[in-house]
Amino acid sequence: MTALSINLNKIALIRNSREGNYPSVVKHAQTCIDCGVDGITVHPRPDQRHIRPDDVRQLAALTHPLDEVEFNIEGNPFADALGSYPGLVALVQETQPDQCTLVPDADNQLTSDHGFDLTQQADQLVPIIEQIKAMGVRVSLFMDPDLQQIKLASEVGADRIELYTGPYAAAWGSNQLETLFQQHLEAANLATSLGMGVNAGHDLNLDNLAKFASIPDLLEVSIGHAFTVDSLDMGMVSALRAYQACLS
Fold it and tell me: Domain containing 112 — which CATH number?
């Protein structure tokens, strides 16, 4: 079954709108873990608009003893250290997650909205990938479903790719859906044939998840924004159960 990793960025965003630690990111992570979630994902950014470095440290301490729960840190490997944000690679080295997902998001982006262009960025990424893998951390690259780019992801040494599913989600209910689904299917099949694992994420929700999860050998999906909204409507435990049902 495809693993479900819950992204807690939006819990942190709500917390950061007030002083203090309410709602607690760690408490909500524990609720997810108690309900049998497979992983916890965070995407710290230099501006600390949501997840902060101390959140990463606390979540690492929470998840490290748990063999059944993976900790995934996402982020831009090229973003400079800023204030108390030490930079992605330094934070990964300190906290030793199970997986590091490298994402090409600029500081001024509202959210991640494209994969790497490895025709331009491969040379920069190779030493970073090697450095993170030497820490014993699995490396995943955030990628569009472009077959040429998927081949390059294998060549630069990625353990996995995470397919950017934003366009697939945006096409839900339109006549473009099947074309986009097939693009993701072909990209996933190619990645698997090249020896890489396949993850996916961005705007997956209770409507579109089950179809996407029909892709063979899809190892993991990470869901945050939609899960948070559904938790407001349904309660967090009920929302988790609904997402787990989609993946079953």
Answer: 3.20.20.70
